[in-house]
Fold these 2 entries.
Entry 1:
Amino acid sequence: MTMTVTTDDGMAIEYQIYGRGPLTLLFLHGWGNAASAWDDFITRRLNLSGLRCIAASYRGHGGSSGCGSGYTHERFARDMFAVVDAVGAKRFVMVGFSMAAKFGRYMAYQEPRRVLGQVLIAPPGPEKFNMPREAFLPWLAAAPYPERFRPILVSFTKMPIREDLLDLYCRNVSLASRAGLEGTIDMFYESIENEVKNTVVPTLIIAGEGDPLFHREYIKKNVLPITPGARVVFLPCGHEIPFEMPNETGSLVEAFLAGLHCGTIVPPAE
């Protein structure tokens, strides 16, 4: 079911709902993508019994309103809290992929008692990104053209991805607004180290051994030291982990949720 919620600054944010269980998961997509990117993973790789999964498209992405402003961590968090508020979720688990594994951490900083746990997939650290901005220019130039963006996407993989999922990813990127693509790149260069360094929330990190961006050494140096109590699993794949190894990723997410449910992973007290 696809719905929208209007934010306090008048933007319509698209979100999709899967399942009706008492435990809410909020799924946040990677650069240029949209809520629909999670459809196959949620419906085929997770047991939805007891779960309500919400996948949202950011402003300027998917079916959400296009906007030339609002690309900050604070605004991003407010947009996503508008989504979980719309479905009546007082507490939830955040699942963030790639850039969203950084952006989504700001939610626990803003309202730590609402975030039961967080799953950070192929995560950048909370620091200012150290890759030259010029490296993103080929991405931006290719984004409107799925056939040109596909080889850029594939260059970040080590395992094959289904053709229909590649097509969907590239099509979503081609439909994202230029402001949304550039605005989220700007967010990469905004440090949130001071905000999240003392935020304690149960955390699972899933990283790719062959990720050219956020590999084992990077995770150990930039993510783990500033993520108190996090557990990390390295999978034999590249950056596009939920699409390269969806079954393994789904199993890890479910094991993390089971730990929360059984109390072996303890969320912050109310």
Note: The chain has a mean pLDDT of 95.
Entry 2:
Amino acid sequence: MPRPPRAHVVTGKWIFKHKLQSDGSLERYKTRWVLRGFTQWPGVDFDETFSPVVKPPTVRMVLSLALTRHWPIHQLDVKNAFLHGTLTETVYSQQPSGFEDPAHPDYVCLLKK
């Protein structure tokens, strides 16, 4: 999709990771394309796109309350939960480096999730 007029495009970067086996040997390489949300502009593409983070003291306080009041505790991993949510805002990303379309170098990606 061609670059939209007067729209800000969020940049990204590649994150590389080594997955290790239990003995410490290399199992595989992993990579993912991560957008830099801090490049968004207030009033343009800033509304309601954030990544909430819980501080450790808050977790300790909630666990302490659960323990003293005998509340059940459940754990789940939500590291990639955002991948399944559909965006309500219009967010554009640059083409991932190494995967640019040479026929359309100034095209951008419209994010849906």
Note: The chain has a mean pLDDT of 79.
